[in-house]
Design goal:
The protein is mainly alpha-helical and 191 residues long. It folds into two domains: 1-47, Homeodomain-like (Arc Repressor Mutant, subunit A); 51-189, Tetracycline Repressor, domain 2 (Orthogonal Bundle), CATH 1.10.357.10. The chain is 73% helix and 0% strand.
């Protein structure tokens, strides 16, 4: 990692730590740069605003999904790999991102035009992995072949995103991992 990438990661890590400690709305750019030990101008080289740090979370999610792919084994069934991916995604969202930041992420996404939303880009790692697993499931006769695997992947991701959204609305009032697995398993039975 070059110096610029390290500086950007440092700013991101410091911001996330402060957001978790104090809440997103209670943290200023000044506090972030003070914690990172950088100048305010340096912050704006890497991020347009405090809210763009939340956008960077999408890239962190993708890096996390890339690492999960390395942990999955082709010897596992399609269902086991999907459960693994969903379970770890829920745990990452709950423990690493947290309720406050996932709310802010959704707020930011709701203010964007559809073409600006990276979260819905089918080229993202999560989409590609789920498409691949559903296609494999169709080839093995686990899922119906009369449905487009991209469409089924979108349904599954919508279901998971909806579970995250409701978890936010209920102020983290249920076990995200347990609920995420339950609702996505029920949906997959219809595939």
């Amino acid at each position: 990692m070059n110096k610029g990438a390290r500086t950007k990661q440092l700013l991101y890590d410091c911001a996330i730590a402060l957001f978790k400690e104090k809440g997103y709305r209670n943290v200023s750019v000044d506090e972030i740069v003070r914690k990172a030990g950088t100048a305010k101008g340096t912050f704006y080289i890497y991020f347009e605003s405090k809210s763009s740090i939340v956008g960077e979370m999408m890239h962190q999610y993708d890096a996390y999904y890339d690492s999960l792919c390395l942990e999955m084994s082709p010897s596992q069934s399609v269902e086991e790999r999907l459960d693994f991916l969903i379970s770890r995604s829920c745990s990452f969202t709950e423990k690493e991102i947290g309720l406050d930041l996932i709310r802010v992420l959704y707020e930011n996404q709701l203010q964007m035009r559809p073409e600006e939303q990276e979260a819905m880009d089918i080229n993202r790692t999560l989409y590609q992995v789920i498409i691949s697993l559903i296609r494999e499931g169709q080839e093995k006769g686990l899922y119906r072949q009369d449905q487009d695997c991209l469409y089924l992947a979108e349904l599954l991701i919508r279901c998971l995103r909806g579970t995250f959204y409701e978890w936010c609305m209920k102020d983290g009032g249920f076990d995200l991992k347990q609920e995420g697995l339950e609702v996505t398993r029920r949906l997959r039975r219809s595939f």
